[in-house]
Amino acid sequence: MKLYDKIKGGLYGVAVGDALGGTTEFMTRQEIQRKYGYLTEIIGGGVWDLDPGEVTDDTMMTLCVAEGILENPQEPKQAIGDKFLDWYQSDPKDIGNIIRRVLSTYRGDWFEAAFLADLDLGQSAGNGSLMRFAFLLD
After folding, report:
1. Which of 55, 90, 95, 108 is surrounded by the most beta carbons within 10 Å?
2. pTM for this one?
3. Nearest CA-CA partner of 56 in 36, 42, 38, 76
4. Per-residue CA distances from 83 to 28, 50, 62, 63, 79 (Å)
5. For the chain, what is the radius of gyration of the CA atoms?
6. Under a CB-based contact definition with an 8 Å cutoff, are residues 61 and 98 in contact?
7. Rounded to whole angstroms, how far apart are CA atoms 10 and 131?
8. Spatial separation of the C-alpha atoms in residues 65 and 126, rounded to whole Å
9. Nearest-CA neighbor of 10 among 54, 62, 51, 47?
């Protein structure tokens, strides 16, 4: 399988899984069972009031990473950051607290913005960065 096809498949997997899981984000297993039983359709709703097929910040940030890498494969950090900032300025309905804080305080130094957000909000235990990690694998 070609690398292009693997990347495309990974992006589709992220988006489809996110659109399915966005409905039940932050719900316990018992709450999901009570409300939906076994969810097998992409229906939207949930805490973000998603339209069916609409994705969360996880997919949007994954796309930013992919676009940033395509823009500058050798040194993608700034391109990825610029994509994050463009997305943030579009006023997304779903954005995590740590990410919102970093992007709202960014003044040219990503490390400093992340450090200040950590000082302000405490350590993050989220898994969003893991979802964007797939593009670093070969």
Report:
1. 55
2. 0.85
3. 42
4. 33, 22, 10, 9, 6
5. 16
6. no
7. 10
8. 18
9. 62
DSSP bridge pairs for 106: none
Contact of 87 with 59, CB cutoff 8 Å: no
- Which one-letter amino acid corresponds to residue 37? G
Long-range Cβ contacts of 47-52 (<8 Å, 24+ apart): 48/22, 48/93, 48/94, 49/93, 50/19, 50/22, 50/23, 52/19
Among 40, 52, 45, 41, CA closest to 24: 45
- Both tokens of 17, joined, read 């899984």
With a CB cutoff of 8 Å and minimum separation 6, the contacts of 116 are 101, 105
For each of the chain's 138 residues, which pLDDT tens digit applies? 898 898 889 899 999 999 999 999 999 999 999 999 998 899 999 999 999 999 999 999 999 999 999 999 999 999 999 999 999 999 999 898 888 988 999 999 988 888 888 787 766 656 666 666 655 555
